[in-house]
Amino acid sequence: MGFLKNIMGMFSSDLAIDLGTANTVVYVKGKGIVINEPSVIAVETGSTRLKAVGSDAKKMLGRVPHNIQAIRPLKDGKISDVDMAEEMLKYFIRKAHNRSMLIHPRVIISVPSQITKADRDIVKRAGRTAGARDVQLVDEPLAAAIGAGLPINDAGGNLIVDIGGGTTEVGLISLSNIVYSFSASVGGDKMNESIVDYIRKTKNIEIGENSAEQIKIELGTAVKTDIIKETQIRGQHIIRHIPQTVTINSDEIKEALEGTVQEIVNAIMKVLDKTPPALAGDIMERGIVITGGGALLNGLDKVIRNKTEVPVSVADNPLLSVVMGAGKMLDDIHFFKNVIT
Ligand SMILES: Nc1ncnc2c1ncn2[C@@H]1O[C@H](COP(=O)(O)OP(=O)(O)OP(=O)(O)O)[C@@H](O)[C@H]1O
Ligand SMILES: [Mg+2]
Predict the structure, then answer these.
(1) Residue 321 CA neighbour count, 13 Å, CB half
(2) Ligand 1: which residues within 6 Å by Cβ?
(3) Cα(167) to centroid of ligand 1, in Å?
(4) Which of 17, 62, 123, 322 is least enclosed by beta carbons within 10 angstroms?
(5) Which is the closest atom of ligand 1 to the Cα of 291?
(6) What kind of architecture, by CATH, is found in domain 2-142+322-331?
């Protein structure tokens, strides 16, 4: 069997996958990132017949005819729809392999650190049904820290904060281990919801999740800016039930996002409070590194720095830190053997 496994390995291109609430990113050993798509799947209502996966499926969210269902199978960092999560993962693994069924890759998948044993098993099984030879899991904060280039193997402390779509994961890492971690169900999705709520309350306009996300990316900010940006938004008037266009500016979006930003800060404070004094000094010196799409929110680093009084830096390509970390593990599987399960 070992011999056969080795032969299979020779022909396979191993994969690292960041199975995120908002986005799934796939890295192929020796090739780099081959897939980076929203974690959305559209099927015929009541069946598992695929209509679209990824970007095409995301466009259908909240606006498809009743015979098609667009689903986000992961919510708040957990698997909320097991069958659909499995279908989606299978689709992406096969796509990364150009649908070749001959190749049985080794796969490393990053999962939220607080995920249940049952969810871990689901992810592993989905990987195997998709044709993987060997499925291993790695905790997201560790993968994020490795991807962001933190010196995780030394004895000092490192604090990583991964702000994704569904969760904010805060991990205190030392000697390649998560010493303490905390995961809060807050991130980019909550920011989008806050924008939807804010516009409904202040302008009587109902907008969709995708429009809210676009506004966030265009105007979103955690701090006051010298130049106030504005944009037009189109939605449905909640009383008159007719489409209407209104203007919204970055100061208003800052106000809409305040509660969510505070929740992110609170999650970080929780871990800082539990940080042993021996590691606290390192954190003060090295600072906090933030990753995940949420780290791109304008001024979020400044707010965290002001409230925690610890220096903060944003990782390069924060949307890719987790997958790049998992990719580094693939490239050097022996070195990282203790952190994958
Ligand atoms: N420029 C930006 N400003 C603010 N938010 C952004 C920006 N770009 C992307 N985002 C947000 O980042 C989030 C996606 O981040 P990411 O891909 O790291 O999440 P994920 O890994 O899928 O989720 P999780 O880690 O919670 O499972 C989305 O909510 C998206 O709207
Ligand atoms: Mg993530």
Answers:
(1) 30
(2) 18, 20-23, 77, 164-167, 187-189, 213, 216-217, 220, 292-294, 296-297, 319
(3) 10
(4) 62
(5) 18
(6) 2-Layer Sandwich (3.30)
Per-residue pLDDT of the chain (341 residues; tens, 9 = 90+): 455 555 444 445 899 999 999 999 999 998 899 999 999 999 998 887 899 999 999 998 877 677 899 999 998 888 889 889 989 998 998 888 765 556 678 999 998 877 889 889 989 998 888 888 889 999 999 999 999 999 988 889 999 999 999 999 999 999 988 999 999 999 999 999 999 999 999 999 999 999 999 999 999 999 999 999 999 999 999 999 999 999 999 999 999 999 999 999 999 999 999 999 999 999 999 999 999 999 999 999 999 999 999 999 999 999 999 999 999 999 888 878 777 77
Q: How far apart are the first and last CA of the chain?
A: 21
Architecture, CATH, for domain 188-256: Alpha-Beta Complex (3.90)
Q: Which CATH architecture has domain 154-186+260-315?
A: 2-Layer Sandwich (3.30)
In ligand 1, which atom is closest to the CA atom of 191?
29
Among 17, 18, 19, 23, the mutation site with the greatest number of ligand 1 atoms within 8 A of its Cβ is 23
Which strands sit side by side in the sheet containing 23-28, from one edge to the other?
Answer: 32-38, 23-28, 15-19, 106-111, 134-139
Strand 15-19 versus strand 106-111 pairing type: parallel
Map out the domains of the chain as residue ranges. Answer: 2-142+322-331, 154-186+260-315, 188-256
User: 315 near 322, Cβ under 8 Å?
Assistant: no
Whole-prediction pTM: 0.93
